[in-house]
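Entry 12.
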Amino acid sequence: MADETPTVRTLEFEDAALARAEPGQFAMVWVPGAGELPMSVMVSDIAGRAAFTVRTHGPSSRALYGVREGGIIGVRGPYGNSFDAKADSALLVGGGTGLVPLMRLITRLPAGARIGLAMGSRTADEVLFEGRARALAKGREIRIEVATDDGSRGVAGTAVDAARLLLDSGRYAAAYTCGPEPMMAALVGEAAARGVP
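Predicted 3D structure (tokens):
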């Protein structure tokens, strides 16, 4: 268990099937007495282990956030489609816990791939996974740009504003995103205008 921020925690556990999940896949997580919620599968450094990164924002997520070591949860999955991780130059754009599937994607991109990672958060204290992304890149070139809503770190704005900095300074074979629909729609427009699928 790792507290990423005051409201975001990563819970790691043994699960061989989820440890093999593809980037973008998710699991249904049941917390006794609180119901079920879909969660992207976070990458783990330990073979045979998987993780969930949860932000407290509703009853089920608060209950999952509150699970302690040795606690019980139910897990079904993995479900869903995955990203096509073949691009040799990739723009990854996410905000908050939307970065979770992108962390797994970093590990599946080809060796030697060039990665631009645009990260968005509300404040500097809520920036997630910057060091983790660098560690996961292992032999891949990575450039990270951060945006915060309040301008306390990086560019003031959203992850799309950070992505513009990356798009202005390089060409990418593909763009991958996860997060709120308005942010993803804005990114699609920015990327398409520059010929990035």
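Annotation: The chain has two domains: 2-79, 89-193. The helical segments are 16-19, 59-65, 100-108, 130-137, 159-169, 181-193.
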